[in-house]
Structure formats: C-alpha cells, structure tokens
Design a protein that fits this description.
heterodimer, A: about 750 residues, alpha+beta, Four Helix Bundle (Hemerythrin (Met), subunit A), Alpha-Beta Plaits, 5 domains, 5-stranded mixed β-sheet, about 40% helix, B: about 160 residues, mainly beta, OB fold (Dihydrolipoamide Acetyltransferase, E2P), 6-stranded mixed β-sheet, about 10% helix, disordered C terminus
Chain lengths: ~750, ~160
C-alpha cells in the first residue's frame, strides 16, 4: 500500500486511502483464511507458518496505519501466537489452532463490516483476544484440554481461580442435578428446546439411535467474573470435548449480545457419558453453578413442543436451586432474563431475509436502463405533441415503431438486470464448508480433506438460501456415515485421510451440485433386503438406481435401516423434499461399495422464470420446462404397443412409456393415426407425452399453485399469459410413476 | 367478547366466518376452468394476477341433497366470498351474502354440531343469535388439504 507523503498518521476518512486499504487488507484476510486451512492440513509446514505470520503482521501494520485499533490489536495478538509457533516454543495444537481460526474469522467479519462502511469498533474482540492469550500461554503441552486446571494459569485470564471444585469432592457451588436413574425433568417449552430445526432434530434422532443421552446443561458464570462471554465459551469448548452440543442459548456464534447475556448459558447436548459432561463442565474456573437435567428425545422430537414462556421455566428453575442462585445478584438474574428473550427471537430458523446485498455493478446496469427508459418516454411525449400539430402520420408511425423497438430492448434489459440482482455466487454456502468439515472431523475423530470447486457459479438467491441446510446435511452424512475412521481406512488400503469434494457447475439452464466422498459407500443389497422386509412390492426386481432412490423416502432412511447398512444417515428424505418439492429440482445418489458415494443435485437457475414449451391438451394450456424436454416427435398409431394407459413406443432404440394429456387429465384421448408428442426426460427416465397441439416456446413466469388445485402433484406451478389465460406447468416427475398405481411413488415404471 | 362475522346463505342454512378472514365479496364472473380439479373446486379466478381457487361450499361441506334442493337459490344473488386463510386467498361460492352479525364467544356451542347433516368437522360450532342459528365455519379446515391440515381449536 502506498504511503502518503504526510507521514505517520493516516485518516480512515480519506476515501481513496480507505479504499486502497480495504482492497489490500481484504486480500490479506482471504489469504490468511486459505493459509490457515493449509496449515491445518499440514501443521508441520514451516513455510505455511511463516506465511501466516507474515500475513498477520501485514494486517497489523496496515490497520494500525489506518487507525483501526481493534483490528490491529487482534492481528497483533495473532502475530504473537504465530511468532511463538515459528520459534518452536509453542506447538500448533487444537486450542491454538482454534484460537487463531477464530481470530481470522473475526478479521474477515471486520473487513466485511468496513467494506460496508462500518467501523472496527462495532466488534467486541475480548473473548477472542483472551483465547489467543490463553493459547499463547500454553507453551508446555498439556494433557486433556478439559481436565481440571487446563484452563488455569493462562496469561491474560485476569480473574484469579477461586472455586474449581473437582466433582469427586462436590463443593456447594456446583449443582450436579444429574443422576443417571433420574427420569426427564427438563420442562419442554423453553427457548433452548423450542423451534428445533431439521438439522438439530436429525442430530438428536441420530444420537438417540446411537443410544446416547440428551441433557440440558445450565451453567451460571460466577457473578464476580467481569467477562462472561469468555467463560461461556470455555464451558462450551469443554462440553464439546465430552458431548455433541446441539444448541446453545444464547448462541455463541451469532450476533454478539451484551456480555451479561452470557452469565447464564444453556446447552442442549447429547452424550454417551453424562458423568464426563458434569466433570468437564465443573472443571472450568469461575463457574458458580452447573445444573444438568435429562431431556427426553421423544418429547424433543415430537412435532409440537408447547410454548410455555421462557420466563416461567426460568423462574421455576431458580426456585429449585435457591442455595447458590441466591448468592447471584439481582443484576445477574435480570441479565439472564434478557438473554433468554433475545435468544428466543434468534434461535428458531431465521426467516428468509427481506433485505439483500446487490453488486453495485448490477445496479449501475439497471440505472442506465432506466435512463434509457426516461429518454424513450420523452421521445414518445414529443411524438404525441407533434401528432397533435399535424405531423405526417406515416412518419409518426415509423417513429413510433422505432420507439417501441427501443422500449422492447429496454424492458428486456431490465428484466435481465433484475434477474441478475437475484443471482449470487454459491460460494456463500460453500465457504462455510471448510469450517463445518473441520469441526465435524474434530468431533468425530476423523480426518478429511475437503476440496471445493465451482463456487463462483451463480444461482438464484432464494434457491441458495433454501439450499444451505440440505447441503450441510449431506456433508454431515458423508462425514458421519460415509468416511471411515482413520484406522479402518488404513486397514482397507485407503489413505488415512478421507476425501470429500463439493462442486457446482452450470449445465444449460440447470445448476448441478455434486457432493462426493471416498468412504465406504452404500450397501445396496442391504437396501433391497430392507425394502423387501418393509413389503415394498417389486423390490426384488428393482434396479440399483431405484433401490438408492428409496433412501429419499420418508421413513426409509432411518438410522436403524441405513446406518447399520453403512449408508446415509437420517434426513435424506428431508433433503429430497426440499430439493424436489420446494426447489423444483432433483437429487440422485450413486455409490460404489468401498469406493464412495456421490449425491448429485440438479437445480433450476431460478424459480421464477423458465423457458418452456407451451402445448394444448383439450381446452387447457400446459407448459413443460425446456430442460425437461428432449425432443418433439410424431407418433403413428402403428408405432404404439400395449394398450389402455400402458402403451409404449420406441425412442432411440429404447422402449419408453407413452402418456397423454387427455388421459392424465381425464379429458379423453381422441383416436387418430398420428399424434404430436414430446419426449420428456426426468433424470434417467424418458417418456412420450401425447399432446393435442404444440404451440410455442417462450418464457413463463411461474407462480406457486395451491395444493387444493394440485392434489396429484402434477403441477410445479401456474402462469398467467398476457391475455389472462392460465398455463399449468407440468411436473414431469409423473413419468416415473406407475400409471395404474399413482399412490406408490416407488413402484417401478413398466 | 363479541366478534363480528360475515354471514351468508347456502341452501336452507345460514353460515358465517369471522370478518377478518374476508377480503372482499364479488359476483361469480370470469371463472377459469382448471384441469382435473377436486370435486369441490369450481375453478379459479384471476384477481389482479392472483390465482384464486373457488370452492363450492355445497360440495365441500357435503350437504345432504334434499336440504339444499328445497331452497332454490336466486342466481342473481350468487356471490363469491374471497377469504384469506394461512396467508393465501380462496373464494367460497355461496347462494347469497347476508349481513355482518355480532356473536358472543360464549354463544358458540361446539357440542351440538352433530345435528349438522354435512361435514361437522368443518365447523367451529353453532352460534345462537337473536336472528337464529349460524353455523360458524372453520376455514383453515375447510380449505386445508387432508395432509397438512392445520389443527385449529375452537375459540376459547
């Protein structure tokens, strides 16, 4: 970055300087993230250590130069830690790595805020600085991060360790309400237990099936501790070592709340070893009380958890532990209440965002089109004025035609520009994966290398938002059930490190996302046995693709069914519903035993406008998305084989079923020697669809169609034409169904 | 508490729905046929770009034929009541729209609905009013599909 002539002090208010700084620092921050990933993959690589050191150093100096003191301090502390690593006096263990990662994350967040015109002072970095200092204090290797005393004499943790009771000698301050024989006492209806998302529920269900227990842990930070958040975080880290924390209230990773809100933390977790949970939670300093209660999986997983207000649950609870709670000041109690409230509004699945960020380039394009539009308007006004003054009608006609041509171009351009504002790169989801994989690996004790490609692929914003959960789910499944433990991999002659790759690409009007792993694969014969056991008719003759598709059926992909057959875990039906029904896309599985599994998602570019082929059936118009039409064809009656709703005909040396709009919609089919037909494609399946007339190819704007009108799910939407006529957009998945047996989606096509 | 309801006639019966569920009342004009509708859906209306399913309450409530036949409705009075349920608009085809009535919550009885000859499960209850009895419709149920039927209890 260029130094200004005036010397030391630069002002963050100088827009040019600021821009130059932002560009440079943003790049440094990105490189830092990448280098850290590399470092994690190979902690012994001193070149990478040096690179990370150099990057933090540059970030420190540049942000100090610009007067961003907090950013600079953060980078400085990271530089210190890496300096120790570089000199060999600190080893890059898990806690150190985590602290550095959280520092890098915060730097990236700060950069994002600065780019949007914010300041670095809006970030409270205390907790991160503390964990960095704590990491720097771990010069000598220690055993067991959660062991009593591990969080002890760390540099920077100012508070003197006072009460650190060992569970073997329970001190009064530690309330361990757990007794393994004690049945569930946790009252449902508090924020911690409400509004569990698909993913959280799936985690719980899996834990239940693994025979773990579900606990609600309430931790009260000592009132004398000035900084609550770092304590809360330490407790969280300790719990994570002994359990799978499903939810935290207030969340530690969301928008930072008032520090006081973290005075009382609630954790919903699952564990195989409740005793250990109590032990590690009590091992953290400056904790006034730990309360552990059993929760019942079935209550949590039941569809509706009655909404008893949080305040009530809170009150009942503090009443029950009068002893130590009484010593907590009123201020702390108030803070807890406030924390509960904010958590309440934050923890349920956030609604779709109503405000969006748009690349200014896209807005500029739109703006210049609007300028053209305004010009065009005055041109038409002028024309109308001249016509009033007796302009030659022929000339006027020509000019009007010209003006219309322009208008046509402008409106087309505006439509495209608006569409573009809806498109965002899929990296907004993919970027979360390195962290997700890293955290899961740590939790599961597995080792995985993640490769990501095609993250620049753009896709409709609403689709991106709806995709985040399913993709996370699939990756989690890969790590949970696909990738083997390192020893097992070695035994099978594989590399110790598993591979998971995620890619996105555009293929015509479709976005294809692939998630694959080199794990153990799915036991297809096992699925067949299970299908037969469940009485699914025809399962003995299913193809592999048909068997794998069963995994997407609700009730089939339960853990009991699939995991012990070494396949996918729970929730693939949730993924399939989201992708197929909500996003009008498709999902497919393929697998090779012992070699791995691949999940492929096919998604439309956008949900609102599709290129479609308009056809007529009886008096109704229908549209078929072009992505699902292979070809149009003429069928003669002599080519048809079979009869009554089960006809078929040859197409490219394959015998495929023949459907007709007349039969599908009960309007009858006229007999003829020759029929117009489309060749439809739905994944690996093709079929003819006989129509009464092929009308045209055009764009249609899709509106959702009410369930009341779509009992058989034949439509994926409806569109209104300019003249008010309705066009129903067909959901071509009907070609996969058996004509005679629509109720059973898994029945094989004849 | 007194609540306001829009009342309408269907055959011999008088029905009502809470005013806040009603968006507008219009003549049945411009009905568009749709392919393979459920037996109780007449078609759709295109109302400023919104595609609104129009439900025949007669068919949906499965009213006994003779009760309906005795009163022959005046086609000039036929109306569509546009309602909003679960954020989505639906039209109800009725014989005649009457007036706004005020009904005490306590006047709605839920235990006498079995005397109703049609789908009693589509009623919140039967309301006593100085003008006579009104059948209070449970619109989320009437317009829900069997699968994702929202469970709505009677008013407390």
């Amino acid at each position: 970055m260029s130094s200004p002539a005036s010397g030391l002090a630069a002002s963050a208010d100088d827009p040019r300087l600021r821009r130059a700084f932002l560009e440079e620092a943003d790049e440094l921050s990105q490189k830092l993230g990448e280098s850290l990933q590399a470092l994690e993959a190979d902690p012994s690589n001193m070149d990478t250590v040096n690179e990370v050191f150099r990057l933090t150093h540059s970030l420190k100096s540049e942000s100090a130069f610009m007067g961003f003191a907090r950013l600079s301090e953060l980078a400085h502390r990271m530089e210190d830690v890496l300096g120790l690593v570089r000199s060999g006096s600190l080893s890059l263990g898990r806690p150190v790595m985590d602290a550095v990662f959280s520092g890098a994350d915060r730097i990236a967040e700060t950069m994002a805020a600065l780019t949007k015109g914010g300041t670095d002072t809006q970030f409270e970095n205390g907790a991160i600085l503390q964990s960095l200092s704590a990491a720097a204090g771990r010069r000598a290797p220690r055993a067991g991060a959660a062991g009593p005393g591990a969080a002890g004499p760390a540099a920077g943790t100012a508070a003197a360790p006072t009460v650190a009771p060992h569970p073997a000698a329970p001190a009064a301050a530690v309330r361990t309400g757990t007794a393994p024989a004690d049945p569930g006492t946790a009252a449902p209806g508090e924020a911690l237990l409400q509004g569990l998302g698909d993913f959280e529920r799936a985690q719980l269900a899996e834990a239940r099936d693994r025979g773990e227990e579900c606990l609600r842990v309430t931790v009260t930070v000592d009132d004398g501790e000035p900084m609550k958040f770092p304590r809360a975080w330490l407790v969280f880290a300790a719990l994570e070592s002994a359990a799978n924390v499903v939810r935290t209230v207030p969340p530690l990773d969301g928008e930072p709340a008032e520090d006081a809100a973290y005075a009382r933390m609630r954790f919903l977790l699952t564990t195989a070893d409740p005793e250990e949970v109590v032990r590690v939670a009590s091992g953290v300093d400056q904790i006034a009380a730990v309360k552990v209660e059993r929760c019942r999986f079935d209550e949590l997983l039941s569809a509706v958890i009655a909404g008893a207000p949080e305040a009530e649950a809170g009150a009942a609870e503090s009443g029950g532990e009068a002893g130590s709670e009484a010593s907590a000041s009123a201020a702390s109690a108030v803070a807890t209440g406030a924390g509960g409230e904010t958590a309440d509004s934050r923890t349920p699945t956030p609604p779709e965002k109503t405000s969006i960020r748009v690349d200014t380039k896209k807005l500029d394009d739109l703006w210049s089109l609007i300028a053209d539009l305004v010009l065009n308007k005055s041109r038409i006004a002028h024309l109308s004025e001249n016509l009033g003054k007796g302009m030659d009608p022929e000339m006027a006609r020509e000019e009007l035609a010209e003006a219309f041509d322009d208008l046509d171009k402008i409106s087309g351009g505006m439509q495209q520009a608006m569409m573009d504002t809806r498109m965002i790169p899929i990296s907004v989801i993919f970027n979360k994966f390195p962290r997700l994989v890293r955290d899961l690996c740590r939790k599961l004790g597995k080792s995985v290398e993640l490769s990501v490609s095609g993250e620049e692929t753009e896709i409709d914003r609403s689709i991106v938002e709806a995709l985040s959960d399913p993709l996370t789910h699939i990756i989690r499944n890969s790590l949970d059930h696909g990738i083997e433990f390192p020893e097992e991999r070695v035994r099978r002659g594989k590399s110790e490190k598993g591979r998971v790759s995620v890619s996105a690409r555009r293929q015509g009007g479709t976005i294809v996302i692939e998630l694959s792993d080199d794990g153990r694969g799915i036991d297809v014969p096992g699925i067949r046995r299970k299908a037969l056991g469940m009485g699914i008719s025809g399962a003995e003759s299913f193809t592999e693709a048909q068997l794998l598709d069963l995994v997407f059926l609700p009730g089939f992909s339960t853990k009991e069914v699939v995991t012990d057959l070494s396949g996918r875990g729970v929730g693939m039906d949730v993924v399939a519903t989201r992708v197929r029904r909500d996003l009008k896309g498709d999902v497919a599985l393929d697998t090779v035993p012992d070699r791995g599994t691949r999940v492929t998602l096919f998604l439309p570019l956008t949900l609102t406008i599709v290129n479609a082929l308009l056809v007529r059936g009886g008096t109704q118009l229908y549209a078929l998305p072009l992505t699902e039409v292979d070809s149009t064809a003429k069928l003669t009656s002599s080519e048809l084989r079979g009869e009554g709703g089960r006809e078929s005909a040859a197409w490219e040396e394959e015998e495929i079923p023949v459907f007709s709009l007349g039969v599908l919609f009960d309007t009858g089919r006229r007999r003829s020697d020759e029929y117009f037909a489309l060749v439809l494609r739905h994944r690996d399946r093709r079929a003819f669809l006989v129509v009464d007339e092929l009308i045209e190819e055009r764009e249609v704007v899709i509106k959702p169609v009410d369930d009341l009108l779509n009992a058989e799910r034949l439509f994926s939407g409806v569109s209104v034409l300019e003249d008010g006529r309705l066009v129903f957009i067909l959901d071509t998945s009907f070609i996969r169904r058996e004509n005679s047996d629509r109720e059973a989606p898994w029945a094989p096509a004849s | 508490m007194r609540k306001r309801y829009v009342s309408f006639a269907l055959g011999e019966g008088r029905y009502c729905v809470p005013v806040e569920q009603v968006l507008q009342i219009m003549r049945l004009e411009g009905l568009i046929e749709i392919p393979k509708p459920p037996p109780f859906v007449l078609g759709v209306l295109n109302l400023r770009g919104d595609i609104i399913p129009v439900v025949s309450l007669r068919a949906r409530l499965e009213l006994p034929r003779e009760k309906v036949a005795r009163a022959s409705p005046d086609p000039r009075k036929r109306r569509v009541v546009i309602t909003r349920v679960n954020g989505k608009p639906y039209g109800l085809d009725v014989d005649e729209v009457r007036e706004i009535v005020e009904i005490e919550d306590g006047a709605v009885s839920t235990d006498s609905t079995t005397v109703f000859g049609g789908r009693a499960d589509f009623l919140v209850g039967i309301a006593r009013h100085e003008d006579g009895l009104y059948l209070v419709l449970d619109l989320p149920r009437v317009l829900g599909t069997a699968r994702d039927l929202p469970i709505v209890g009677p008013p407390a």
